[in-house]
């Protein structure tokens, strides 16, 4: 990964709410695909635990810019696009573990399907648990079943979207600005869940490049 990013970059929630993945395959960078494929194949071929842990915690030391520089403009349904979204998701969780746990717990309570089981978080899910979950999901792409890691991340996002929507509904009458913010966040999590779920399906059909 690129060097020279010494300070972790704060990634405000408003940036996440404005985030949209690239949709045009023609804009994909050859470097993004080459680095994503090379990194993943090399580590998965010999998943040394120390190397895996360094990759999981990479943005803690170098900031999100180093990852964004390589992969943020890639298509949402591509290997570099999937890696970017997984690192982004981990960062968002770590920057607000309390708020994340609150939304996740609400979403889990409302879930009628298997998403809480797929996501793999303990119950109840507090701040420490969601931080550990984010690390575990990212760890899975380097030393586990990549498709399952993507499925877990997608399920997590769907639960977050459900929780944010529920809290937005509760806040609509008394805190309209907060309600609007949470509604936007729910939409972004829903989109992110769809993109990661699509990547999981592509991975299993050997089509995620």
Write the layout of secondary structure elements.
Elements: H1 13-17, H2 30-45, H3 49-56, H4 58-62, H5 65-71, H6 79-95, H7 97-110, H8 115-119, H9 127-143, H10 146-171, H11 176-204
Distance between the termini: 18 Å
Mean pLDDT: 87
Residues in helices, as a percent range: over 70%
Strand content: under 5%
Largest sheet: none
How many strand elements?
Answer: 0
| Count of helix runs | 11
**Helix and strand succession?**
HHHHHHHHHHH
Weakly predicted, low-confidence segments: 1-11, 14-24
Structural class assignment: mainly alpha
Shape: globular
- The value of Rg in angstroms is 17 Å
Concise overview:
The chain has helices at residues 13-17, 30-45, 49-56, 58-62, 65-71, 79-95, 97-110, 115-119, 127-143, 146-171, 176-204. With 209 residues, it is mainly alpha-helical.
Can you walk me through this structure?
It is a single chain. The protein is an all-alpha fold and 209 residues long. The protein is built from eleven helices and no strands. It has helices spanning 13-17, 30-45, 49-56, 58-62, 65-71, 79-95, 97-110, 115-119, 127-143, 146-171, 176-204. The longest helix has 29 residues, at 176-204. The protein is globular and about 50 Å long. The two termini are 18 Å apart. The model is unreliable at 1-11 and 14-24 (pLDDT under 50).
Question: What keywords describe this structure?
Answer:
209 residues, mainly alpha, disordered N terminus, 11 helices, 71% helix
